[in-house]
Amino acid sequence: MNNLKAKKNPIEISVIGSGIAGITTAFHLGQKGYKVNLIDPKVNSEINNINPLNGSQAALGVLMGNSYKRTKGRAFFLRKKSMELWKDWLIQLDYSRSSIALEKPLIKLASSAKEYQSMIEISKNKKEYGIELLDEISLEFWSSIFEKQLIGGLISHEDGRLNPIKLIRLIMSSLDNMKVNKIERNVIRIKNNKLSNKNWQVYFENNEYMNQDYIVICSALNTEKLLKPLGHEIHLEPILGQVFELELKDLTTNWYQWPAILNYQSINFIHHDPNHILMGATIENGTEPNLKYKQEMLDMNKDAPKWIRKARISHQWSGIRARPRNEPAPLLKELEPGLLINTGHYRNGILLAPSCAEWIGLKINRC
């Protein structure tokens, strides 16, 4: 991968956490030529969604960046920048192997008159982003699929989905090619090192440590524990997403009309195999799947069509994400010289990963 090679920089950076925020931050910094350590006790574990080890492996990979309702502010900028960056990153990551691409488009169906009015405004304000309202033929099709007369919807031709497992594997492979040092250990604490030309120390068990120029914490819920001894109060709460793979028994439809992502009632539907659909959402507080929330999603507010009610759950999984309390997600902060955080992405970890990694890179470059 010649395009991933960069002139080596003597600055050494430890990225703590190997979810999507951590591995994309390591990827971006590695591209810039920094010496990067990626630290996580599960960094070399198998990547799959059978038994996902973090929220990223449990994700569906939805990129709903262009159809975001706002047109200004930090949240809008991060989405806009990430959608631009993913195009370049996929070329760099895939390097002509054609094993991953942004699957498009995304269709969002309105579940209320208020939501449809918002879609009308989005379609007016974001025509240049490839967004338009569904026509009558499309609306009739989706009304037949969900067995009720729908109000309306929109299609975003440039939004869609990245297969998260393929993506994570590609990034991890690229980190190997860039000689990013993967350290399969648990970080016990971090400490400001005022007696050395390197600002920080990363401590492991048995009081072993490494001197580092920078530390970037991307460790979701573990962030609080690492920062509290330093006097930094970061408040995160666990939010759990559930995904079900449904084996359909009697739905007959033209699958070519299904988009990469269909979003309805804040639930994402992905047709990924003949007569199989993924159905998932980030829906509940806590760390363990709740049967009540599972049933509520499958019931779709008592509006679930017959094909969902009759379907068999062939596989299901869940993943924990970290949501900031009383602060907007994600948390991007420089807490002290040389100490940065990129965490708390909640629902949009894969979508926002490139722009957040770039933010970290810019902060380090300016120091």
From TrEMBL:
The keyword Oxidoreductase applies. InterPro entries: FAD-dep_OxRdtase, FAD/NAD-bd_sf. Keywords: Oxidoreductase. GO terms for cellular component: cytoplasm. Pfam families: DAO. One of its GO terms (molecular function) is oxidoreductase activity. It comes from the Bacteria. Residues 13-360 form the FAD dependent oxidoreductase domain. SUPFAM superfamilies: Nucleotide-binding domain. PANTHER family: GLYCINE OXIDASE, SARCOSINE DEHYDROGENASE-RELATED. This is FAD-binding oxidoreductase.
